[in-house]
């Protein structure tokens, strides 16, 4: 496949994943709504770093090493799932009082907490790895030049960053927050259940994989 064609196809398929609601999207949106744009962006930066790490591993041939150390990756799923489950419970309880003024929203946690939340949500998401493995296996060959791989990686990181900024900007608007303030208890329970289900799936997959290796 032509290098330019490979770059375009890879980025197009990556962008399509933005519209598939998952742990990453729910985590960033919920953080923005409950703690403000700055917190949401910080959480989004964590997700972007996770995408950068996994796409880099896939592009430069280290996914093979990850598959060889499957037990370690299974453990990551379990730990990440436990963290997401803890976060899902806090979202489900939904005790946060929203401040409709996005400029004056008081953050309840240190900045590192939001960043870590986004990073863990992405790194513990098996869909992230499966996407990069499946796509790169079809768009990259041994003949693919290094410059093409670098451009793919930069494009993925940039697209991921832009999407998280769009999410945070949209859900930090006063009109959106005002609407959310009227339904946030119901939405919080729904998001909490979704995150809890995703977390339970991660934990189950991780434990099943570890048990099967014994």
Automatic annotation (TrEMBL):
The residue ranges crossing the membrane are 6-29, 41-63, 69-89, 146-166, 186-204
Q: Which GO terms describe its cellular component?
A: plasma membrane
Q: Which InterPro entries match?
A: LeuE-type
Kindly state which keywords UniProt assigns to this record, in alphabetical order: Cell membrane, Membrane, Transmembrane, Transmembrane helix
Q: Which GO terms describe its molecular function?
A: amino acid transmembrane transporter activity
Q: Which Pfam families match?
A: LysE
The membrane topology of this protein is: Multi-pass membrane protein
Query: Which superkingdom?
Result: Bacteria
Q: Where in the cell is it found?
A: Cell membrane
Q: Which PANTHER family match?
A: ARGININE EXPORTER PROTEIN ARGO, TRANSPORT PROTEIN
Q: What is this protein called?
A: L-lysine permease
Which species expresses this protein natively? Providencia heimbachae ATCC 35613
């Amino acid at each position: 496949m032509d290098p330019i064609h490979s770059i375009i196809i890879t980025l197009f398929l990556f962008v399509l994943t933005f519209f598939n609601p998952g742990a990453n999207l729910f985590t960033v949106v919920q953080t923005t709504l409950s703690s403000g744009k700055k917190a949401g962006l910080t959480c989004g930066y964590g997700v972007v770093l996770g995408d950068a790490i996994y796409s880099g591993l896939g592009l430069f041939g280290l996914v093979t090493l990850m598959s060889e150390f499957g037990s370690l990756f299974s453990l990551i799923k379990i730990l990440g799932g436990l963290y997401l489950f803890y976060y899902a419970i806090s979202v489900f309880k939904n005790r946060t009082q929203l401040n409709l003024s996005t400029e004056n929203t008081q953050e309840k946690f240190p900045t590192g907490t939001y960043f870590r939340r986004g990073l863990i949500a992405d790194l513990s998401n098996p869909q992230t790895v499966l996407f990069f493995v499946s796509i790169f296996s079809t768009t990259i060959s041994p003949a693919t030049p290094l410059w093409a791989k670098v451009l793919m990686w930069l494009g993925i990181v940039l697209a991921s960053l832009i999407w998280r900024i769009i999410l945070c900007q949209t859900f930090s608007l006063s009109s959106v927050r005002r609407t959310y303030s009227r339904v946030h208890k119901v939405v919080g329970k729904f998001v909490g259940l979704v995150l809890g289900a995703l977390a339970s799936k991660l934990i189950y997959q991780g434990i099943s994989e570890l048990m099967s290796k014994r």
